[in-house]
Write a structure and sequence with these properties.
The chain is an alpha/beta fold and about 300 residues long. The chain is built from nine helices and 15 strands. It is globular and about 55 Å long. About 40% of the residues are buried. The chain binds NADP nicotinamide-adenine-dinucleotide phosphate (NAP). This is D-galactose 1-dehydrogenase.
């Protein structure tokens, strides 16, 4: 069965990833775009979600590619209209609203899929399998990228709920919470907030695993040139390194895998499986860690960020 799907919010990630992955996947047909500003030639267009929901009862699934601050309202409307919902990451602006959406989806008998694209990087599952029976000694995350390259002209990332550098940092945490055998807890954080902005441009976070080892995270949005998306895990049986955002896996310096980016193809394959089984997939562990880092974080004001 081919699932008709609508994209809500035709911004960077919708164009870069969702459109190509939907086009490639025979289980989906792009049936409409909901956008306040943009249209796509040959595809039905609506300026509001409510108009689309009323006019196209045949569209059973919506992919919400908006910023997190407005996602709950869109998700609620779609769920109440009996549609399945894919949420871009982070799945919401607060932990509680995502939990609430999960319950609402269950009540309405629809699938809710809170996506974490980095979990579909090809080194992540092998890393999880390798770590499953190891004793972990420490974990170091370094996630440094150039905000001007990945979020050109986007104001929402600097506004409350936009999460600042946690917008990419949560990708690292989504991998961390997937590959480690035991949960981790935030113990402290320093958040560097530009004096002209509301959200951090850099953050250092300390965690402790319930099994006792430490985790450190260094998130920074000021890195030009080569970008760094690395997670290094020291274990009793050797050193595991995930780099390139999870696409490269090394163990004790030996490359096990260096793969192409197929993250969003993985997301749509999983969505098709969820729709077939009638299940939801909503894991908020990494969103909770970001919330906790903000609860415990000391604020350090840094120089203004001018785009
Ligand atoms: P973006 O380029 O700013 O696009 C977001 C789109 O959401 C806008 O084009 C806008 O589309 C729509 N929108 C609806 N209500 C809005 C509102 N109140 N304020 C602003 N936009 C609104 O952002 P993006 O980079 O695609 O990011 C969207 C989501 O994808 C974020 O949660 C982000 O974390 C995630 N993501 C981004 C990247 C990346 O590389 N940028 C990578 C992975 C995931 P219309 O004008 O069409 O209505």
């Amino acid at each position: 069965m081919v699932h008709k799907i609508a994209i809500v919010g035709l911004g960077k990630i919708a164009r870069d990833q969702h459109l190509p992955s939907i086009a490639k996947n025979p289980d989906f047909e792009l049936a409409a775009i909901v956008s306040r500003n943009a249209e796509l030639e040959g595809v039905d267009h609506f300026t509001t979600l409510d108009d689309m929901l009323a006019a196209r009862p045949d569209i059973e699934t919506v992919a919400l590619c908006t910023p997190p601050q407005v996602r709950r309202q869109y998700a609620e409307a779609a769920i109440r209209a009996g549609r399945h919902v894919l949420l871009e990451k982070p799945p919401g602006a607060t932990v509680a609203e995502v939990e609430w959406l999960k319950n609402l989806a269950a009540k309405h008998g629809v699938t809710l899929f809170a996506t974490w694209h980095s979990r579909y990087a090809q080194g992540v599952e092998p890393a999880r399998a390798w770590l499953a029976d190891k004793t972990i000694k420490s974990v170091e995350i370094v996630w440094r990228e150039d905000v001007r390259r990945w979020h050109p002209g986007q104001d929402w990332i600097w506004e409350p709920g936009g999460m600042g550098v946690f917008d990419p940092g949560i990708n690292a945490l989504s991998i961390l919470t997937h590959i480690l055998p035991a949960p981790v807890l935030v113990t402290g954080a320093v958040l560097e907030v530009p004096e002209n902005r509301q959200t951090p441009i850099a953050a250092k976070i300390d965690f402790v695993a319930v099994t006792g080892h430490t985790v450190t995270a260094d998130f920074d949005w000021r890195q030009e040139g080569p970008q760094t998306w690395d997670i290094t895990v020291k274990t009793d049986a050797g050193l595991l390194e995930l780099s390139g955002g999870g696409s490269v896996l090394r163990i004790d310096g030996q490359t096990q895998l260096a793969a192409d980016d197929t993250e969003y193809d993985g997301i749509y394959a999983h969505l098709a499986a969820l729709l077939a089984s009638g299940e939801s997939d909503v894991d908020i562990a990494s969103l909770q860690l970001v919330a906790d880092a903000c609860m415990l974080g000391a604020i350090s004001k840094v120089e203004a960020f001018i785009e």
